[in-house]
Specification:
There is one protein chain. This protein has 65 residues and is mostly beta strands. The protein has a domain of 36 residues. 0% of the residues lie in helices and 12% in strands. A two-stranded parallel sheet has the order 1-2. This is CUB domain-containing protein.
Length: 65
């Protein structure tokens, strides 16, 4: 699950969206752009399983290599 996205536009989603995905799934999406460019990430639909410490479902965005 996951891939590297390049180019001016793109989309990504969890496996089996909009249905549930398998347990213990780890997805890693890498977005690569020229260093002089920036990106915008928009979530049209966002639903996470509740858990006090976010141990199960979370989204992590960071800048860097």
């Amino acid at each position: 699950c996951g891939s590297t996205l390049t180019g001016d536009e793109g989309t990504f989603s969890s496996p089996n969206y909009p249905e549930s995905y398998d347990s213990n799934l780890w997805c890693n999406w890498t977005i690569v752009v020229n260093a002089s460019m920036s990106i915008t990430v928009t979530f049209d639909n966002f639903d996470l399983e509740f858990q006090q410490d976010c141990d199960y479902d979370y989204v992590l965005l960071y800048e860097g290599s």
